[in-house]
Automatic annotation (TrEMBL), chain A:
GO cellular component, as recorded: alpha DNA polymerase:primase complex
The protein, known as: DNA primase large subunit
Native species: Eptatretus burgeri
Subunit structure and binding partners: Heterodimer of a catalytic subunit PRIM1 and a regulatory subunit PRIM2, also known as the DNA primase complex. Interacts via (C-terminus) with PRIM1. Component of the alpha DNA polymerase complex (also known as the alpha DNA polymerase-primase complex) consisting of four subunits: the catalytic subunit POLA1, the regulatory subunit POLA2, and the primase complex subunits PRIM1 and PRIM2 respectively. Within the complex, POLA1 directly interacts with PRIM2.
Keywords: 4Fe-4S, DNA replication, DNA-binding, Iron, Iron-sulfur, Metal-binding, Primosome, Signal
Cleaved signal peptide residues: 1-26
Gene3D superfamilies: 1.20.930.80
InterPro entries (alphabetical): DNA_primase_C (IPR058560), DNA_primase_lsu_euk (IPR016558), DNA_primase_lsu_euk/arc (IPR007238)
Cofactor: [4Fe-4S] cluster
Function field: Regulatory subunit of the DNA primase complex and component of the DNA polymerase alpha complex (also known as the alpha DNA polymerase-primase complex) which play an essential role in the initiation of DNA synthesis. The primase subunit of the polymerase alpha complex initiates DNA synthesis by oligomerising short RNA primers on both leading and lagging strands.
Residues reported in the UniProt entry to bind [4Fe-4S] cluster: 260, 340, 357, 397
GO MF annotations in UniProt: 4 iron, 4 sulfur cluster binding; DNA binding; metal ion binding
Pfam families: DNA_primase_lrg (PF04104), DNA_primase_lrg_N (PF26466)
Automatic annotation (TrEMBL), chain B:
Phylogenetic placement of the source organism: Eukaryota, Metazoa, Chordata, Craniata, Vertebrata
Signal sequence annotation: none
Matches recorded under InterPro entries: DNA_primase_S, DNA_primase_ssu_euk/arc
Cofactor: Mg(2+); Mn(2+)
Enzyme class, spelled out: transferase
Protein name (Swiss-Prot/TrEMBL): DNA primase
Family named by the database record: Belongs to the eukaryotic-type primase small subunit family.
Organism superkingdom: Eukaryota
GO BP, one annotated term: DNA replication, synthesis of primer
Alphabetical list of Pfam families matching this protein: DNA_primase_S
Keyword Metal-binding: yes
Catalytic reaction annotation: ssDNA + n NTP = ssDNA/pppN(pN)n-1 hybrid + (n-1) diphosphate
Annotated keywords: DNA replication, DNA-directed RNA polymerase, Metal-binding, Nucleotidyltransferase, Primosome, Transcription, Transferase, Zinc
GO cellular component terms, semicolon-separated: alpha DNA polymerase:primase complex
Length: 500, 430
């Protein structure tokens, strides 16, 4: 291979890095406010992307202007990678939004473009033969919702089930002998699977190169700003240690805990035990509240002792995990309190579990009862349930916050149970403690304080490397990737991007 | 002769009742005479296809007084046997195959020491069924609820075999109140965490924690995999739920089932049930009502949903998800019950009776007494001289379990024999 010598010029205060903000942020908020992939959601996406003038729709005819726009898009994407590879929470957020965006755009491609895209990315799928299709007709129809009407016109592809994990997970396709039968309409899932895997790997690689890049002091604040502006604080740094005493917990639980933590707290008080998922979710939340390791150990030990687990058994079976969560054992990673998104999307509770988000994981009837017992009026309950029905769990929770705290429009975007707690405390203490509790960084609202640049080149969304088509584009990405992976220091100069 | 043996067994059980205080005395004997180290190595070495596969495997020991030792690893079956004799673990767990030998993990950078592969495992535990069994709670099991485990094995095993195409599945009694499954195909051992959790979720039909009452929601059309599961459960459901559990036998039990129905159906059924006397009648009534031609669409699957909620396997997804999750090894002795974690014969799942699984005390007792009763065999074995000690298990009630393990190993061996042959052919060409 030729020895390449390259510099990347990125205008420091330019719009570039900020370009991708609104788009990804919008992707998130659409996903929170509308049922994903519903008509309304698609419409919102379309409008947003139109505003951003993204040149990806037709891959068969690519103009020079398109290439230019794309190049900027790619750079934005890579800067965001840098900003979002820094912690697991950030990576998860970034992956999710990028994946949703990708899925939407893939679905908008014309069929010729899809084929070209698959070819260029070396994704070859062969469709099953007509006789196999006939033989499996019933199973294929029964495996996918709405397939009955589409069956005759659909091609099916056979791939190893490991290439279609999302479809397997949701039991959305027919599986036989380890092969998944994918209807043409669901091909996007497989491509997306690929996209996610490679982006996730790339983020991990980037993270490894990060220390070197962080030495550049011009870059550091920018990256930090970028990531905070997005998902709000991630509570990975423990503040206020020792501000809360254990005997305050009961009253705090009723007054200031979000519903998810409140139910965990009372389940624990009631049964003197919580299963693994509950211990993690609640334990990390308490850690975020400022409970010290010693306090946490005492808390769990005392409560478990009221049940069937004596201190000795506790020491052997549970203490390790708690120390672990505080980063004192094992890999010594300091675990971060779970965000709403993580609670809502991952680790669905099973029988015997109390964790999860009540707005997402509790039956409507039961949830109503509980809201009632927390003294919400029936019209208030209806308003909350309206959000639940529309699958806007965090908004439902926020409404609940407003009703229980007697405020109108809480004016913060709820994204984290610890944020819920802090906002509640701020209100209850009439703002007087607010300052002390938030010494350091003040909790930023989740809404990004960044406005869309009014430039002649409208904002771009970031896009994955797998959507690139021209050879030079691919190369550009690879170079950047390699550069990040090897921790090559980037040079930042005012100007435009140049490779060579 | 056979009768004599049967009779003898019964007597043994009574004479050799297990009490956990004996463990310390009996375990050394058990590890010496019974635990199949050779076969164990053969299993986990997987034909040596991958370099140092057995040597990079983590084992963990739980010693007396609950002392837990992780990251044990062994050079060979011999070394493992020696170490086990030395430590006499109360329990042994099998963990992942790591990038380096676990007992030498300090010699490499912590970040380089990574769990790489492990069998895909499933843990099904009777305590997860507490809200749907009426006979026992927590760690207790009885003949009336054990059929739940039979359902679980049948349903999960079918899906692993037919849907996912896995060939080498070892089902093991956990020694107390559940079963474990080890999927040992090479492709299964190499699965990523995401793939493992996808499989576990594909197999999970019961969703929702303490916050949800109705935990099964079927949508139309019902996925072929669930249809197959329903087929497997249909036959025995009536015997289990209606006879053994009598799950519609009184009002309290009925309310539990009624809670799973849509409102209009519930009202109808509640009044219908009150005039019926037993579970069988109630169930028939519900079925005929929901299957009636004029029944509304949302009633269509109610009786199947009830069946699933009461009988469908409940997996601990967390156990299956992690590559680095430890699971109790087969042929361990359960410290509380003394029962050996024996492999279960897939051809006779229905016949498996956890109360017939040999305990360590029973085995040791048999070892002392059996040769005198079964004379002919004793002579045969004596002629082989040296080998006699090694084959003790053949004369005891552990023999059947070892045979099940052997047939599992035989199939497994065929898989790597083919592969090694192919590879050596390739080498010969060059
Ligand atoms: S929305 Fe977030 S804070 Fe509210 S209950 Fe759900 S997980 Fe907890
Ligand atoms: Zn029972």
């Amino acid at each position: 291979m030729m020895f390449l010598h390259f510099f990347v010029f990125i205008p420091f205060h330019s719009h570039f890095t900020i370009f991708c903000f609104p788009v990804l942020k919008a992707v998130e908020s659409f996903g929170m406010c509308h049922t994903k992939w519903s008509e309304k959601y698609q419409k919102k996406m379309e409008d947003e992307l139109k505003k951003a003038n993204l040149p990806y729709r037709d891959l068969m005819h690519v103009s020079d202007n398109d290439l230019e726009l794309r190049r900027k898009d790619h750079i934005s994407h890579f800067i965001l990678r840098l900003a979002y590879c820094q912690s697991e929470n950030l990576r998860r957020w970034f992956l999710q939004q990028e994946a949703d965006l990708f899925r939407y755009r893939f679905s908008q491609q014309l069929s010729g473009s899809v084929r070209k895209f698959l070819d260029l990315n070396d994704l070859h799928y062969t469709s099953i033969l007509p006789n196999e299709k006939v033989e499996l007709k019933t199973q294929l129809i029964n495996s996918t919702f709405g397939m009955k009407e589409l069956f005759d016109t659909q091609d099916f592809y056979k791939v190893p089930f490991t290439d279609a994990l999302d479809l397997v997970r949701g039991r959305k396709i027919f599986l036989r002998h380890g092969l998944a039968y994918i209807p043409h309409n669901d091909l996007v899932s497989i491509v997306l699977n690929d996209f996610r895997t490679s982006l996730s790997r790339a983020l991990a690689v980037t993270a490894r190169g990060l220390p070197v890049i962080q030495e550049d002091e011009r870059l550091q604040p920018l990256l930090k700003h970028l990531s905070y502006a997005y998902i709000g604080q991630d509570y990975s740094v423990q503040k206020n240690v020792g501000n809360i005493s254990l005997d305050q917990l009961d009253s705090l639980a009723t007054r200031s805990f979000p519903l998810c933590m409140r139910s965990l707290h009372y389940a624990l008080r009631d049964q003197h035990h919580l299963r693994h998922g509950g211990r993690l979710q609640y334990g990390l939340f308490l850690k975020g509240l400022g409970l010290s390791l010693e306090q946490a150990l005492t808390f769990w030990r005392t409560e478990f002792a009221r049940g069937s687990i004596d201190p000795e058994k506790f020491e052997k079976g549970y203490a390790y995990n708690i120390r672990h969560a505080y980063g004192k054992e094992g890999k010594r990673t300091d675990y971060t309190p779970y965000s709403c998104m993580k609670i809502i999307q991952t680790n669905t509770p099973g029988p015997g579990d109390h964790h999860g988000c009540p707005f997402r994981h509790t039956d409507a009837d039961l949830l109503r009862q509980r809201l009632q017992s927390h003294r919400l009026s029936s019209s208030e309950i209806n308003q909350v349930m309206e959000y639940v029905k529309g699958m806007h769990y965090q908004l439902a929770c926020q409404k609940y916050f407003e009703f229980t705290h007697k405020v109108e429009d809480g004016a913060f975007g709820l994204s984290h149970p610890n944020q819920y707690f802090e906002e509640s405390q701020k209100l209850l203490s009439g703002g007087q403690h607010a300052k002390r509790e938030n010494s350091g960084e003040v909790q930023k609202p989740v809404v990004a304080p960044v406005t869309m640049p009014q430039s002649s080149h409208p904002a771009q969304s970031s896009e994955s490397q797998s959507t690139q088509l021209s050879a030079s584009q691919v190369e550009e990405q690879e170079l950047l990737e390699e550069c990040f992976a090897n921790g090559v220091v980037l040079r930042f100069v005012k100007g435009t991007v140049e490779l060579g | 002769m056979k009768q004599q043996l049967q009779h003898y067994r019964k007597k043994t059980m009574a004479d050799a009742d297990f009490c956990s205080a004996q463990l310390q005395d009996l375990l050394p004997l058990y590890y010496k005479r019974f635990f199949p180290f050779g076969r164990f190595f053969k299993w986990l070495n997987y034909g040596g296809v991958k370099k140092n596969y057995f040597q990079r495997r983590e084992f963990s020991f739980t010693l007396k007084d609950d002392i837990y030792v992780r990251y044990q690893s062994f050079q060979s079956a011999n070394e493992m046997e020696k170490e086990v004799h030395k430590a006499i673990p109360y329990k042994m767990d099998i963990g992942a195959v790591f990038s380096h030998r676990p007992n030498q993990r300090h010699c490499v950078k912590p970040s380089a020491f990574q769990a790489q592969e492990k069998e895909l495992v499933f843990d099904i535990d009777m305590t997860d069924y507490d809200d749907v069994r009426t006979c026992c709670k927590l760690a207790d099991i009885c003949a009336n609820c054990w059929p739940l485990m039979t359902f679980a094995i049948r349903v999960i095993d079918r899906a692993l075999r037919e849907d996912f195409g896995f060939k080498h599945r070892l089902w093991v009694y956990s020694g107390r109140r559940g079963v474990h499954c080890w999927v040992c195909d090479e492709t299964a051992r190499e699965l990523s965490q995401a793939a493992r959790s996808s499989i576990a979720e594909y197999l999970s039909v019961i969703k929702g924690g303490e916050g949800s009452i109705k935990k099964v929601n079927l949508s139309d059309p019902v996925h072929p995999s669930i249809q197959e599961s329903l087929k497997l459960m249909k036959n025995d459901f009536e015997d289990y739920a209606l006879v053994k559990q009598d799950f519609l036998g009184n009002e309290k039990k009925r309310e539990k089932v009624l809670a799973l129905m849509p409102d209009d159906l519930r009202t109808d059924m509640r009044s219908d049930f009150s005039s019926l006397t037993n579970s069988v009648n109630c169930w028939d009534r519900l079925k005929s009502c929901t299957q009636a031609k004029r029944a509304p669409d949302k009633w269509r699957h109610v009786h199947e949903e009830v069946m699933l909620q009461f009988c469908y396997p409940r997996l601990d997804v967390n156990v299956s998800k992690g590559v680095n999750h430890l699971l109790k090894s087969p042929f361990c002795v359960h410290p509380k019950t003394g029962r050996v974690c024996v492999p279960i014969d897939l051809n006779k799942v229905e016949d498996f009776d956890p109360f017939n699984v040999p305990t360590i005390s029973q085995l040791c007792w048999e070892l002392d007494h059996l040769p005198e009763v079964v004379d002919a065999q004793a002579v045969q074995v004596t002629e082989e001289g040296q080998k006699r000690r090694r084959k003790d298990y053949k004369k005891t009630s552990l023999a059947a379990a070892i045979r099940v393990f052997d047939s599992f190993l035989e199939d497994l061996e065929a898989s790597w024999r083919g592969r090694l042959l192919r590879e050596s052919d390739l080498k010969n060409e060059f």
